Amino acid sequence: MGMMRLSKCLVSLLFLVALSGFTHGFVMSPRTLLNRFSQNSNYYLTTEEHWFDQTLDHYSPYDHRQFKQRYYEFLDYFQVPDGPIFLKICGESSCNGISNDYLGVLAKKFGAAVVSLEHRYYGKSSPFKSHTTENLKYLSSKQALFDLAVFRQWYQESLNLKRSKTGAENSWFVFGISYSGALSAWFRLKFPHLTCGSLASSGVVLAVYNYTDFDKQVGESAGPECKAVLQEITELVDRSLESNRKELKKQFGAAELEIDGDFLYFLADAAVIAFQYGNPDALCTPLVEAKKAGEDLVAVYAKYVKDFYVGTFGVSVETYNQNHLKNTAVNEGSSDRLWWFQVCTEVAYFQVAPSNDSVRSSKINTKYHLDLCKNVFGEGIYPEVDMTNIYYGGTKIAGSKIVFTNGSQDPWRHASKQTSSPDSNAENCSAPDAVNKVRQKMIEHIDLWLSECKGTGRSSM
């Protein structure tokens, strides 16, 4: 069975709560804003921390250092002893528990245990007391995948010890969203003997140097009328920056962003979020109405940015400040410097303005991104995009038994696998009932792939 790609209208429809908050991202990192939900105990199935001794460098024959890596387990639905184990991959943010989302529904249906490992360096799983550039050299997707493999083996063995068995294997299935969705697909690719299958929701498996399709998708998702107003605002802002820099930044509550590129990125991301999370009306309705009424468009946009992007969505302006990104202190709640390191070394996703018809400012270009990488991390730091795609295959990923799901309005979809394998079906959706069909198809594949490796825990590949 090859890879299956299911398309859906809005990513947030598929994974309910889990995806309704996955990123803000200066780089539009697919980052989960878990802190938005941490006050709500219903958001988590469990927040009880467990710890695992992880190898620091999986590729060194002589460096045997270890660090403490945090993980969670939820066993309420687990059909002991032979139920499947769902490995939920935590991405590029602090992992504060196992969230109570659609995966919980699946776990109940399949009688599965759910385990979740925090990504190295993020949250409480940092190997070092300082995040200097030198100390970040073990932060990569390759090391993270090895972490998951070693943890999976250790967890299986610990289960076997509890039931006094040797060599027993439960059926494992991996899940991830966005960057962790890419990790989910890559895990199945690199360690096919350790999992029966993978779900990669918005899995950004293609590293992209100049990611102009991101901005193009924003324009398409906005529609002609709203796009035109956004472009007019960009033009007005660019002009105002030359004559009225300080006042303009104050108007957006972003006076701290001294570098113009940082400020313009903040404004671009504020628009993106409306489409990525299915809230286009929150942005487009007031802007289009303001245009028709001849109102001050920059003022109306500033209100949206402060009320919705910063207020409702909870984004911090300092996330965009390169001085903040230079801070090497280990801070459990801040993952900005860490994700930028991965961007500047492995995957890029530089959201540059297309050469024409751009929604974002043309000042957000390749030079801005490379200057940021150099300014924040020092000389010689730039993304090895070709190497990343050679290693994983990009959208030509040659893995099997992977379900890819993508939101049609999500600008990240262009870095995911969107073309179905020849032996799979694509499902387009335009309504919630179609999303249910997609879910049903997803359940059928999980069921099939689990049954195909039942008793061995290993796929027939």
If you had to describe this structure to a student in words, what would you say it looks like?
The protein is α/β, with parallel strands linked by helices. It contains 14 helices and 12 strands. The strands form 3 sheets. Strands 1-12-9-8-5-7-4-3 form an 8-stranded mixed beta sheet, with helices on both faces. The chain has a two-stranded antiparallel ribbon with strand order 2-6. A two-stranded parallel ribbon has the order 10-11. α5 links the parallel β8 and β9. The radius of gyration is 22 Å and the shape is globular. InterPro entries: AB_hydrolase_fold, Peptidase_S28. Keywords: Glycoprotein, Hydrolase, Protease, Signal.
Can I get a quick summary?
By secondary structure, the protein is an alpha/beta fold. Helices cover 42% and strands 12% of the residues.
Shape: globular
**Count of all domains:** 2
Question: Spans with pLDDT under 50 lasting ≥5 residues?
Answer: 3-40, 422-430
CATH architecture of the largest domain: 3-Layer(aba) Sandwich
Based on the model shown, name its key terms.
2 domains; alpha/beta; single chain; two-stranded antiparallel sheet; Rossmann fold; eight-stranded mixed beta sheet; 461 residues
